[in-house]
Design goal:
Chain lengths: ~180, ~375
């Protein structure tokens, strides 16, 4: 292409691409529905956080107040900054054997960096991300939480057939009991 | 006192006669100057503040945001609150700065835009001074502003400021040519530089319609070149937040910074109203040739509404540019001017001169 042709084709190509850009922003300008801003304090009633949102670590309980944590302590070992503390207890089960259960699953929200290593490491998938995010308190002791609900029990899986080894994933279950 | 929203000349004449009949001519002249000055000052402050608000809103909507919405209804008082905050801020004294130049630089910028407002025809009979070289005057005073920018950059004794100011100088001096040449297009069409005559010549249609394609080219050229001349994005190399912190006003704080900020927005307003006046008929309602009925309906909308409508439209277009396009590099900026805008403008002027000579435009 000769230089004169290139000169004019540059001009028209430039105008075309600029017009394309103008159309994008112009579309957003006349369509207020494309606004993504959440106006937080006003919409706290209907604000729905996203599935991947990392609000806080929770211990999942089902509707009968059962959890699946057997107190193995792997989450505690995996936590880089010591946010989790597990106090175990032992009870005698129906077979007459001594069995480990959790007494207190303590979570220091004030120290948590939300890295998610505890949730990834949990072999029985009992930890998950909760979607609560209004954590501001006046007393920092309030940030130390006991994750197992009072009176909750470990969910017994039937011995036979042997349950397959749970797959460790990062998915978040739907149940989200408040602590 | 006669008051007519369609024609302010009766009102202004009545005020003039009242003043001259009650006091000596010298005092009447001084009082008139004071009245006009105060009115323009008020318009300046209000328009400047609300342009900042409008810019923040337009920018927010284009970026899928909401923009200021906490202070007052829809955030309408936000910029006033910002101004009050800026008024209370400390004026930081730069130790190794040239104090005199550093202090007067913002005023030079403000004075330049203030002088330009004087010649803007807001409505029929609502124009402070009607020079017979109005277009020339507007160009001349609006380019005084660059001296303020250069002084600010030089006197701050800071590398960011100096680079910003030098860039701004190169940019304004280059784009001044294109602004002048694109305005010359309409000067050739209307045969006058007087803004009121240019408006009267658009009584049967605006120049952007009457002048065919050359007028449209001139209009687009004017928009591009004047956006560059007022140092706004995508030509905001003088400020270039990401590379020069804030360019020539890096070292300014408090109300001096607010002056630069207001001056920038008022320059945008002046450029937009000049474009509206010259290309879109100023306060002249939309008239199509001899369609008497249509023209009569359009005449019911007051001229001041027409004027502000057109100006706001052009301001919107300039903001639309700013929030869509990325900033140019300095070499791209000068290439755009010297290789594209200037040659096209010169050819355009030639074509317009030929069209006017042959009488091929809509008279």
């Amino acid at each position: 292409m000769n230089s004169v042709g290139k000169y004019f084709s540059d001009i028209f190509y430039g105008i075309k691409s600029l017009w394309k850009g103008l159309m994008v922003t112009g579309y957003y300008f006349v369509h207020p529905g494309t606004i993504v801003t959440q106006q937080y304090p006003e919409n706290r009633k209907e604000l729905k956080m996203f599935d991947r949102f990392k609000g806080e670590v929770i211990l999942q309980h089902d509707e009968n107040n059962f959890h699946t944590c057997n107190g193995c302590g792997i989450c505690q070992l995996n936590c880089p900054n010591g946010s989790l503390e597990i106090i175990t207890d032992s009870v005698t089960n129906e077979d007459g054997k001594s069995e480990r259960i959790i007494d207190k699953h303590i979570y220091h929200l004030s120290m948590c960096t939300f890295c998610g290593l505890c949730i990834k490491a949990c072999p029985s998938n009992s930890l998950a991300w909760g979607q609560e995010f209004e954590h501001a308190v006046f007393n920092r002791e309030a940030l130390t939480k006991i994750l197992n609900q009072p009176g909750s029990l470990i969910k017994k899986t039937p011995k036979e057939p042997k349950a397959p080894k749970p797959v460790v994933t990062d998915t978040v279950p739907t149940s989200n009991p408040a602590n | 006192m006669p008051f007519n929203i369609y024609d302010f000349s009766g009102t202004t004449k009545a005020v003039d006669q009242f003043l001259y009949s009650t006091m000596s001519p010298t005092w009447a002249f001084v009082v008139e100057l004071a009245i006009v000055g105060i009115i323009i000052l008020l318009v300046y402050a209000v328009v400047g503040l609300y342009l900042v608000y409008a810019e923040r809103k337009v920018c927010a909507f284009m970026q899928n945001r909401v923009g200021p919405n906490r202070v007052g209804k829809w955030g309408l008082i936000q910029t006033i609150a910002d101004l009050i905050k800026l008024l209370m801020k400390e004026l930081v004294v730069i130790r190794k700065a040239d104090q005199l130049l550093f202090n007067i630089a913002p005023f030079i910028l403000i004075i330049a835009s203030f002088m330009a407002i004087a010649a803007i025809p807001f409505a029929k009979g609502l124009q402070a001074v009607d020079f017979n070289i109005g277009v020339f005057y507007m160009m001349a005073v609006s380019s005084i502003g660059v001296i303020g920018t250069l002084l600010a950059g030089w006197s701050s004794n800071s590398k960011y400021s100096l680079i910003g100011a030098i860039r701004s100088g190169a940019q304004v001096v280059s784009y001044e040519l294109s602004v002048g040449l694109s305005l010359l297009a309409v000067v050739i069409f209307s045969g006058s530089m007087q803004l009121s005559v240019i408006i009267e010549s658009q009584a049967n249609g605006w120049w952007i319609f009457k002048g065919h394609i050359p007028a449209i080219i001139a209009f687009v050229m004017f928009l591009v070149a004047s956006t560059a001349e007022i140092n706004r994005g995508p030509f905001d190399l003088a400020e270039a937040e990401s590379e020069l912190t804030a360019g020539f006003h890096t070292e300014y704080s408090g109300i001096r910074f607010a002056f630069f900020f207001l001056g920038e927005y008022m320059n945008m307003f002046i450029v937009a109203s000049l474009a509206a006046t010259v290309f879109l008929g100023g306060w002249m309602p939309l008239h199509i040739g001899n369609l008497a009925g249509f023209n009569h309906v359009m005449d019911f909308i007051p001229p001041i509404v027409w004027y502000f409508g057109k100006t706001v439209f052009i301001i919107y277009v300039i903001m639309w540019f700013k929030w869509t396009f990325p900033r140019l590099r300095i070499d791209q900026l000068l290439t755009l001017e010297w290789k594209y805008l200037l040659p096209i403008n010169l050819v355009n002027i030639l074509v317009i001169a030929f069209i006017v000579l042959m009488g091929w435009y809509i008279k």
